[in-house]
Design goal:
The protein has 134 residues and is of the alpha+beta class. The chain folds into 2 domains: 6-69, no CATH class; 72-133. 47% of the residues lie in helices and 22% in strands. It has helices spanning 6-22, 26-37, 100-133; strands at 46-55, 58-66, 71-75, 81-86. The chain is rod-shaped and about 115 Å long.
């Protein structure tokens, strides 16, 4: 035997959850998120649902949100992941040791140095050969 309308209960529960959600301290949540996961919220948080739950033998409220997380992935030319990290402001994301332009410029310098070294070695060998003939 029902003693009240279940739709009224569900509507009241939803209103109650929405009221709690509206009063959440997002600065405190963001501080805890940064402390635990080392990133901050970049954009708006999408509220998915809220509910009453039992947690460690006590009544609690559970809210589910969807957040966007800044993600940095570093991988080699062979496709292997070298590092993956999240960051809130970009300050904690390790910068790549060298950019592609730096690598190309340094590569050209290294190639030129390598070619110069080989040419010097060959010139020395020719000199040694010529001196041996005298």
């Amino acid at each position: 035997m029902k003693i009240t309308n279940p739709e009224t209960i569900h509507a009241s529960e939803k209103e109650f959850i929405d009221t709690i959600n509206a009063e959440l301290d997002w600065e405190a949540i963001e501080a805890m998120l940064f402390e635990k996961h080392n990133f901050t919220l970049e954009e708006d948080v999408d509220y998915k649902k809220g509910d009453l739950v039992v947690f460690n033998d006590q009544i609690a409220y559970k809210f589910d949100f969807h957040i966007k997380v800044p993600l940095s992935v570093v991988f080699g030319r062979d496709g292997n992941c070298l590092e993956i990290s999240t960051s809130g402001s970009g300050e904690n994301v390790p910068e790549a040791e060298e950019s592609l332009q730096d690598l190309q410029a340094n590569g050209s310098n290294r190639e030129n140095e390598n070619i110069s070294g080989m040419a010097s070695t060959i010139a020395e060998m020719i000199t040694d050969i010529n001196q041996g003939d005298e």
